[in-house]
Amino acid sequence: MFYSRLFVLAGLFVSVLSNDPLFRTIDFGKWTSWSDWGECSVTCDRGVQYKSRNCTDGIAGKGKCNGLAWEARACVKKSCDSNSTIAVTQTVPTTPTPTTKRPKSYVRNCYHENRAASYRGFTFRTISGRFCQQWTSNFPHVHSYTPSNYPQGGLGSHSYCRSPDNDHKPWCFTSDPAKKWEYCNIKECSELPLPTTTTTTTTKEPVTYTPTLCFDMRHPYSYRGLVSTTSSGQPCQIWDYNKPHSHIYTSSRFPTMGLGFHNQCRNPDGDLRPWCFTTHPDIPWEYCNVPSCNGPTTTTTPVWTTTFSTTTKMTITTPRQLPDGCGRSLYPMASSFRIFGGVESVKGSLPWQLSLRKTSGNSHYCGATIISTHWVITAAHCIASPDLPHTYYAMAGKYYRNLRNEPGEVRINFQMIFKHRLFNAQILNNDIALMKVTAPIIFTNKIQPACLPTTKQPPQDQRVVIVSGWGRTETAGSSSVLMQASLKIISAARCRPMHDSLDEGMMCAGYTSGGRDSCQGDSGGPLIDMNDNNGRYEIVGIVSWGIGCGLPNKPGVYTQVSYYLDWINWIMSSY
């Protein structure tokens, strides 16, 4: 039986060894030859480099075949002016001596919690001992923390720990495919002098709150009660801790949301009601049993005012401007998990994502993607009446699924809809449709188009891609916020034994091992990939169908957009 709205998120099993190489996957099955060693993760001094091979003994993830295997080793560049790489087997020092001097005011052997963004030290290992991924690389983890997106973040062609997003502590993406990011093993300064250059002093205005001891839907952020357990009785995790669950909801990032060194339920993201992360390793978060306010006469505690002290931060010398062209975002992709197996996206980080709706119901039912000022792309099975375009509309710039009049949201109406003429609703092949808008879409910082693929070839096997949507979960209904998850492309040759109905124009993404992951996503929504040559996000797939959810050897199936490039370009140029 076919199911739409499917994707699966699972980790790659890695065995960490104490000797050389740094880590490798378990060696079972028949394998291809090892690839050459890749680039060193630093441009000078010492870093890490990788090689890989593929399992060829049957289906990856089944029996003795473990799919893609990685090996890593320490490496060293002779000097900053040399491109030669030497493999080294000794332990890599935590703080290697740099060969290039940096401005003294930015060189730090420690960090200050209130000014972690100013750290310019040379540590490139995390608190667990993992090596850091190079900031300009998208391997093994895809991200948008680049020097161009964060010009004052101290990023570059190196793997040194940084805090480009003003987190309370320097961090990095790790070289371990199974662990996306971690904080770094850096000491906190007891006293840190302010930088002497490139600084600006800013004072935040006092913020006045009317805290409530009950939950008022009209003021979803206002709850300041003392409830510290979830509806199922799980104790809450302290907000300023990242154990057992890593997340972004700390008092340093959200200073006005009542967070801090406590575990009381709060609602920093404007959800349906207060919630918290739990102390149970297998239950990331749950809603709390907080009483609702009954009308405007509910008793509240006295109004208080919180005044922020003067802070010094890095100066951004260039004004924030709209991205040039397609496939760019002003906001970084999320790297923190709130639900098991999925990621809450950062507001504005997926500006091409649309919520497709019908005028008869006004509720979200499918996803879609902006690809130009005049065109939107989605799955054909989401369109029952292409001859009635006025009965459909899309919401752009949305983050909350059900919140009305969300700041920055825009309604998009349609004048023409083109379903692929060979679409078959029974087997869901050629599952693609184009929708022409009634008026040009005005791009903003949260509304942008995704690029079409630059090649007709499908994404490479094991390529990491991102899927997004407001889709359903098996246990908690539809998500209230826009979600995303990282998946791996599964080649047609490896996928056909798992899906015998796989047709031309279809592609698979997910994990052959399956798992207990939640099922997120949304039919018609985008599967995107960053182009390595230009750093732009391309829509490579459209959420189409699947069998079950999270089952072993049953990955999700997507419409391969590059297969239909000629059809897409012909429709767009003809109408």
TrEMBL record:
Hydrolase recorded as keyword: yes
Swiss-Prot/TrEMBL GO biological process terms: proteolysis
Cystine pairings recorded for this chain: C161-C184, C265-C288
Statement: the UniProt record of this protein carries the keyword Nuclease: no
Highest taxon listed in the record's lineage: Eukaryota
Cited CDD domains: KR, Tryp_SPc
Keywords recorded for this protein, A-Z: Disulfide bond, Hydrolase, Kringle, Protease, Secreted, Serine protease, Signal
Protein's cellular compartments: Secreted
Domain called Peptidase S1: residue spans: 339-573
Domain Kringle: 118-189, 222-293
One protein family per Pfam: Kringle
Record-given protein name: Plasminogen-like
Lineage: Eukaryota, Metazoa, Chordata, Tunicata, Ascidiacea
